[in-house]
C-alpha cells in the first residue's frame, strides 16, 4: 500500500475544499491557533511512518486525553470503574448535563466530559501525585519525555469552565465524585491541555492497534482484553453525538478533541493522527473527518 502517496493526494484534495468549520473559541487560548494548520501522521505496526503537512507541530489534544486517562484508570481500577461510569453512547453533546439528572450522576461513558471527570476523580483517589503521575504515564506509553501540559491552556479553560464545574458539582450531589471538585476540575483541565504532534499521537495510539502491546518497546501497556474494550468505546462513543456518523463514514475506533485533533486505529494494521483546528457543530474536526473518510475508502481499511 503506498500510504505516502495516498495521504498526500487526499490531503491536497481536502485543502482545496473551503473549510466550513470554526476553531473552538470557548477556551480563549485555543482560538489563537491558525485555522489553516493541517497535519497527518500514519504509523503501521510494521514500523513504517508516513506524514503530511504540520505533522511535527504540537497541538492541544483536549479530549483525546480521555483515552489515555481511561487506559490508566482501567489498568489501576479494573472492572470496578464501570460501577461509576457507563459504556453507552450518549447521543448528546460532549458537555451535556441532561442525562446525569435522571441517570443519578452516572455518566453515559468515559469519553464525554462528565465521564472523564469521574475518571479524573478515580485517578485522584489512586495516584499519589495525580498531575505528575499521569504525565509520567503519558510519557512512558508515548516513549517521549518532552510531552507536557500547556499551563496557559489549562488556566484559560479553568477561567471559562462553568459547564464542567456544573457537571462535577451535579455528580458530587449524587455521590459520584469523592474528591474536592476544584481538584477534580484542575486535574481534568491539565489532562486536556496535553500537547502532542500528529507523529507523537499516532505513535502513542499504536498500542490500541496492537492489543495493548507497544510495538516499539515490546511492553504490554494494557491487556489485550482491555485494549479491545477501549477500542469498542472509541468506536461507539469517540465522537459524542456524531459517533454513529464517524462509524458510518470512516469505520475506525477513534477519538476527537476540540483542539481539532483525531486519533484513530485500524487494529492489526495502523494508527493515525490528523489535526485541523476548524470544528463542526458537534465539536469534531471538519477536515479530519473528511480526510479519514477518504483514507479508509481509498485504502479499504474501514474495520467493517
Ligand atoms: N477541555 C475540553 C472541555 O472540557 C475538552 C472537550 C473536547 O475536546 N471535546 O470542554
UniProtKB/TrEMBL annotation:
Its EC number is 3.5.1.2. GO terms for molecular function: glutaminase activity. Keywords: Acetylation, Hydrolase. Coiled coil: none annotated. Gene3D superfamilies: DD-peptidase/beta-lactamase superfamily. Homotetramer. HAMAP family: Glutaminase. This is Glutaminase.
Amino acid at each position: 500500500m503506498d500510504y505516502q502517496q495516498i495521504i498526500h493526494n487526499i490531503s491536497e484534495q481536502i485543502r482545496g475544499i473551503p473549510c466550513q468549520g470554526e476553531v473552538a473559541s470557548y477556551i480563549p487560548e485555543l482560538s489563537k491557533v491558525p485555522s489553516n494548520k493541517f497535519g497527518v501522521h500514519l504509523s503501521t505496526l510494521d514500523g513504517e511512518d508516513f506524514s503530511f503537512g504540520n505533522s511535527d507541530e504540537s497541538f492541544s489534544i483536549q479530549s483525546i486525553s480521555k483515552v489515555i486517562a481511561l487506559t490508566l484508570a482501567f489498568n489501576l481500577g479494573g472492572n470496578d470503574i464501570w460501577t461509576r461510569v457507563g459504556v453507552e453512547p450518549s447521543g448528546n453533546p460532549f458537555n451535556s448535563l441532561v442525562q446525569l439528572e435522571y441517570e443519578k450522576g452516572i455518566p453515559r461513558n468515559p469519553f464525554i466530559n462528565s465521564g472523564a471527570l469521574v475518571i479524573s476523580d478515580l485517578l485522584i483517589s489512586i495516584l499519589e501525585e495525580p498531575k505528575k503521575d499521569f504525565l509520567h504515564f503519558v510519557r512512558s506509553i508515548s516513549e517521549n519525555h518532552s510531552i507536557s501540559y500547556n499551563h496557559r491552556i489549562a488556566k484559560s479553560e479553568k477561567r471559562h469552565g462553568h459547564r464542567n464545574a456544573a457537571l462535577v458539582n451535579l455528580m458530587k450531589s449524587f455521590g459520584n465524585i469523592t474528591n474536592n471538585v476544584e481538584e477534580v476540575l484542575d486535574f481534568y483541565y491539565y489532562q486536556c491541555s496535553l500537547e502532542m504532534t500528529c507523529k507523537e499521537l499516532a505513535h502513542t495510539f499504536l498500542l490500541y492497534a496492537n492489543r495493548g502491546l507497544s510495538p516499539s518497546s515490546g511492553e504490554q501497556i494494557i491487556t489485550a482484553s482491555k485494549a479491545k474494550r477501549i477500542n469498542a468505546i472509541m468506536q461507539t462513543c469517540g465522537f459524542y453525538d456524531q459517533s454513529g456518523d464517524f462509524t458510518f463514514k470512516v469505520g475506525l475506533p477513534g477519538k476527537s478533541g476540540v483542539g481539532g485533533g483525531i486519533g484513530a486505529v485500524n487494529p492489526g494494521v495502523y494508527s493515525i493522527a490528523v489535526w485541523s483546528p476548524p470544528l463542526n457543530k458537534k465539536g469534531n474536526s471538519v477536515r479530519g473527518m473528511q480526510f479519514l473518510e477518504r483514507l479508509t475508502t481509498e485504502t479499504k481499511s474501514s474495520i467493517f
